[in-house]
Specification:
201 residues; alpha/beta; Rossmann fold; 5-stranded parallel sheet; two-stranded antiparallel ribbon; 6 helices; binds flavin mononucleotide
Amino acid sequence: MKHVLVINSSISGDNGHSSKLSKAFIDQLGSDINLTEIDLNAAPLPHLMMAELAAWMTPAADRTAEQQQLAHYSDNLINQVQTADLIMLGVPMYNFGIPSQLKSLLDRLARAGVTFKYTDKGPVGLLADKPVIILATRGGLYQGTPADSQTPFLTSFFNFIGLTQLHFVYAEGLNMGEEAAQQALTAARQQLGKLSEKVAA
Ligand SMILES: Cc1cc2nc3c(=O)[nH]c(=O)nc-3n(C[C@H](O)[C@H](O)[C@H](O)COP(=O)(O)O)c2cc1C
């Protein structure tokens, strides 16, 4: 049974286009999956602060009760990512970037010595590679232009920790009239349908 990790970050919660598309994708995978869902709108993570970094750098057995609580955010997330066979991210574009809620999560996924390490040949990702589907929802049109800050950032980030099987699906022009929005959503659903067959195989 496949372990699927879904991470949604729309501030519209279940009503966000990215959340709806990710739900449609999960439904296409059928019931024979082990699903873990992270809804960063319902349960936002705080910004990463130095006290949490200090907790990571303290051996588990020596952590104070507060440090144990702080380290749990990252430890638990990394465990969910390690256990997953497939990861799906709903990524709205907000103010030319990814949601700050998602940035807070990614800040807890990059852990020196755990998900990446530096060597004399440069950084090496430590996570076992697996497919990551990135569902990018946008009011305007950015794909393939220098204004698309999300695609290069997410590519660099995931490659850095060892995840290179990235599949970007774009639903763009969602605020450019009803017809354009429906066309974009239909195209994204079709692309997700093909991907669900591919990753389920
Ligand atoms: C606070 C905020 C900022 C936004 N900034 C952008 C932007 O920079 N570029 C863009 O194309 N759309 C922008 N949008 C539109 C969203 O990308 C669009 O509504 C998309 O559907 C959001 O995804 P969601 O429906 O999954 O939440 C913004 C929307 C909000 C609420």
